[in-house]
Every structure is written in structure tokens, then in C-alpha cells.
């Protein structure tokens, strides 16, 4: 019984840790994809949760039935034609570039807030990621089992402090009067959920082979989706009640944490770095599993190759990579998920 609960919580932790990343933990992703749309952002986050649970269920069933080992297998199964090849290439490119973005962000974060040289920040994350990744799936589970509970504790603490000291901002009528962008909130939610689902599939597909009990996988991913949504709702609430000030900050949540003293700020910055690390490990793990299968090279060699490739790409710059990658990958992910539904309905 205890072992079963432990496995379920580990799966939930990996789900949250893979999706969260620095963008969500800092408040930047929530600001761009949800908060800017006012009170409708809460509905958007609930839509994301429903999509996470539904698609995880489909991917688990497909992975089990067709004995899939990587996201490449999933893409080839659901979309075997030209579009599938494009999706496969873009997904690999996104994950490698995502790893590079995180390395760049790690260097920038440690340099800006802790005074460390940028290159030291990049090398620190690269070497630590290498050590964890050499432990394969076990390393991925171990790191998320530590990082995700820490994330939940820190964000919940900031939220409770905010609610206690900002009682005037809790009024629902006040939230409805906050200026917002009335257009595209639904599309923004769908696109955001789409690229997160395709990204997480890189971890969920191989996990489906490692965890034999399908029920544990379904409960774990559902619990992860619920936890992620509660976390996002808390962040969104704090950001929404601080419009328009949050738009002036690269780390919007840090603007809110500033009022609670240095210790809270340092804790938030630390968890952002750890969430960067968690996503870095997940991205490299996903691509390494695909390279291992596609090119018949060892998993450890694939890990080294991706890290060595990511370091020079990280020099392109954080913002340039994000501005190109996210919209392109969001669109291709959405198309793939539509194909996934069609395929699932015909074959299950």
C-alpha cells in the first residue's frame, strides 16, 4: 500500500516538475498565457487541467497497447506521414533548444541575483544535470521528488503571506474590474496546454514501460495535473491582483515576494533555479531516449551529446530563442493533439 502511494506521488512529482520550469515558477508564463486575460484566466487554467488529464490517459493507453518507448514512437504511431516527421523534428529541436534556453537562463539568473559569472552558472547546471541523468529514470524521479514538494511549499507560503497581508485584494468584484485583454484567452489556454502535453509525452511514454501498473500512471498524472493547476491558480491570483506592475518585471512573482523580505526572495530564486534544473533534466532525458532508439547509441552517450550541443546554442540568447520557439512549437503541438484524438477514437 505504502509502495503504491509512493509510486503515484513520484509520477505526480515528475509531471509537475517536467511542466513547471522556470517560466511558470517565475510567473512569466502565467502572466503571458493567462493573467493578461483577466478573470477568464482562471477558466483557462481549468481547461488546461482537463486537457492534461485527458491526454495523459490517452498517451498511457497508447503506450501500453503499442509498446511505445519514446515520444518519437508516439508521433510515428499517431501521425506517420510528412506532418509526423515535421512534428518529430520540431519536438526534438524544441527540447534541445529548451535545454539551451534553460542553460542560458541559469547563467543569467545566477549572474543577475548572486553575482556569479554567466559561464559558471551554465557549467554548474550542465555538470549537475549530467550526474543526475546518468541515473536514468531513477535520477529523474529522485530529483523531482525533492524539487516539487519544495516548490509547492514555497509558492503556498508566499500565497498565504500575500493573502494575510493583502486582504483588500481578495475581493472577487475587484478582480472582475481589473483591465484585461478580452481576445484569444481560450486559444492561449489551448496552445499552452498543447506544448506542455507534447513536452511531457517525452517523459510519460518511457515511464509507461517502466511502471507496469497502468492505474498508478493514470492516478499519478491526474494528481500531478490537479497539483499543477492549484499551484497555477495561486500564482495567477497573486499576479492578477498586481496588474499592471507585474508587466515591468522579468520575474513577476519576485515583485510580489519582495515585500516579504530577503529570505523569501532567496527561497523563490532558489526554487526557480531548481525548476530550471528539473525541466533541463526532463528535456535531455526525453531526447536521449529517442536518440538511443533511433541511432542505436547508448543512453549515456546521447546525454553527453545533447548537453555538449546545448551549451553553444545557449549563447544565442534567452529571449531570441523563446520568441521563435514557443509559438511555432505551440501550433505544431496543437495539430498533433488533434491527430491524437482522431487516432485514439479509431483505434481504442
UniProtKB/TrEMBL annotation:
InterPro entries: YkvI-like (IPR038728). Coiled coil: none annotated. Keywords: Membrane, Transmembrane, Transmembrane helix. The keyword Transmembrane helix applies. It comes from the Bacteria. The chain crosses the membrane at residues 37-62, 116-134, 146-165, 185-205, 217-240, 260-278, 299-318, 324-344. This is Transporter.
Amino acid at each position: 500500500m505504502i509502495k503504491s502511494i509512493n509510486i503515484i506521488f513520484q509520477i505526480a512529482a515528475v509531471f509537475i516538475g517536467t511542466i513547471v520550469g522556470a517560466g511558470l515558477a517565475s510567473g512569466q508564463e502565467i502572466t503571458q498565457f493567462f493573467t493578461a486575460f483577466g478573470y477568464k484566466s482562471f477558466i483557462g487554467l481549468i481547461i488546461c487541467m482537463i486537457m492534461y488529464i485527458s491526454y495523459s490517459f490517452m498517451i498511457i493507453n497508447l503506450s501500453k497497447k503499442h509498446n511505445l518507448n519514446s515520444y518519437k514512437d508516439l508521433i510515428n504511431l499517431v501521425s506517420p506521414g510528412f506532418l509526423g516527421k515535421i512534428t518529430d523534428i520540431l519536438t526534438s529541436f524544441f527540447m534541445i533548444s529548451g535545454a539551451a534556453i534553460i542553460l542560458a537562463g541559469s547563467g543569467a539568473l545566477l549572474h543577475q541575483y548572486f553575482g556569479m559569472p554567466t559561464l559558471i552558472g551554465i557549467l554548474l547546471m550542465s555538470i549537475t544535470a549530467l550526474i543526475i541523468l546518468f541515473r536514468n529514470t531513477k535520477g529523474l524521479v529522485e530529483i523531482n521528488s525533492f524539487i516539487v514538494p519544495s516548490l509547492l511549499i514555497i509558492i503556498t507560503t508566499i500565497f498565504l503571506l500575500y493573502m494575510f497581508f493583502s486582504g483588500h485584494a481578495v475581493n472577487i468584484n475587484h478582480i472582475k474590474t481589473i483591465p484585461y485583454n478580452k481576445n484569444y484567452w481560450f486559444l492561449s489556454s489551448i496552445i499552452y496546454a498543447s506544448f506542455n502535453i507534447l513536452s511531457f509525452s517525452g517523459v510519460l511514454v518511457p515511464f509507461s514501460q517502466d511502471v507496469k501498473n497502468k492505474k498508478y500512471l493514470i492516478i499519478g498524472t491526474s494528481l500531478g495535473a490537479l497539483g499543477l493547476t492549484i499551484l497555477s491558480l495561486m500564482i495567477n491570483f497573486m499576479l492578477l491582483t498586481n496588474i499592471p506592475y507585474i508587466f515591468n518585471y522579468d520575474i513577476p512573482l519576485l515583485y510580489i515576494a519582495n515585500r516579504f523580505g530577503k529570505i523569501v526572495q532567496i527561497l523563490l530564486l532558489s526554487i526557480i533555479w531548481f525548476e530550471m534544473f528539473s525541466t533541463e533534466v526532463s528535456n535531455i532525458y526525453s531526447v536521449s531516449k529517442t536518440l538511443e532508439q533511433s541511432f542505436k547509441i547508448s543512453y549515456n552517450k546521447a546525454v553527453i551529446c545533447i548537453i555538449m550541443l546545448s551549451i553553444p546554442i545557449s549563447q544565442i540568447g534567452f529571449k531570441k530563442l523563446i520568441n521563435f520557439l514557443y509559438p511555432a512549437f505551440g501550433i505544431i503541438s496543437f495539430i498533433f493533439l488533434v491527430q491524437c484524438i482522431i487516432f485514439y477514437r479509431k483505434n481504442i
